[in-house]
# Entry
Amino acid sequence: MIIEGRPPPSVGTYGSMSIAPHGTGYRARTLYRDYDGVTRRVERHGQTKGAAERALRLALRDRMHVGAEAEITPDTKIAGLAETWFAEISAQDRSPGTLRAYRDRLDRQIIPALGNLRVRELTTGIVDRHLRAVRGKHGAALAKLCRTVLSGMAGLATRHDALEHNPVRDAGRLSPGTPKRVPRALSVAEIRKLRAWLNDDEKARERDLPDLVDMLLATGLRVGEALAVTWDAVDLSAGTVEVRGTVIRVKGQGLVIKSAPKTRAGFRTLMLPSWAVEMLRLRPLGRPDQTVFCSVLGGLRDRDNAIGDLRNALNAAGFEWVTSHTFRRTVATLMDQSGLSARAAADQLGHSHPSLTQDVYYGRRIANTGAADVLEVFG
# Structure
């Protein structure tokens, strides 16, 4: 006759507690079957029976391991969870702009407010109050981005069994903020006025803004893409420029060219209007691998600094409503007004799926979208 032994407790469960005097207080202990399948004795101490029992129950609640060494546990600080999550998504195929936006939310809103909490303390109520505070101070759009980041962090903690569920999903909905202003593009007359002002302004010339703005208007490039254009990507004879990447700032490395634009459709070669070709021809020629719009010392130019310089110049010129994105919208609007297709505009701007233009074919690379002829009007 075979007598079977008592089956082991289920993973993540424990047996009865025993509480007995120990030293000057009490000791509470039990057997707990960890997530690696090993049953271990767990004990905690307290001045009273109740204190010892509460300490043991708290320890059992937090005893959630993934294997022997979990990166994320219930006792991990939110600041540590944030860094682990950001390292994970940084290894994915995310656009530099998205990573920069996520990093800013971590550094400016999430870590300062929640960083010292433990993962197990990240409740729906705490998340809800934090998001409402962010909305009240910074607006609905930024609060929604914080919610996206927090949800990703909580999802990582859930996968590590440090949280039972994602508390961000149950947080209250964020009411919409102030309606967005109607998108506006520059008219041909406004473009000519702005270009003339930039060429006449000494500070704008010192910061190399006239030619940079011309490049943005001639191509519809993003600022980071324009700053990443190297001389070997420009063919003055053919009148083309190849878009290969974008300038980003990497923590611990500084400014680098990420050899991938924002989207897969971002790899493109564009025809230039004749006035843009002439502008490039008059610039001092640099090394083949040197950027066309470099810093004073000849290195990469910081995107954020360039946008800041541009913002100051636009304000001084009386174009407070204009942003760097307005130049892209202007190119697309002029193409539309000239009867060019939304697909051609998508190819020009490097859009993959956006609502601004129709979907484009994967990997589509069209050099002559028709924009060059349309943009001759600025010359």
Q: What stands out?
A: DSSP finds 14 helices and eight strands in the chain. The mean pLDDT is 83.
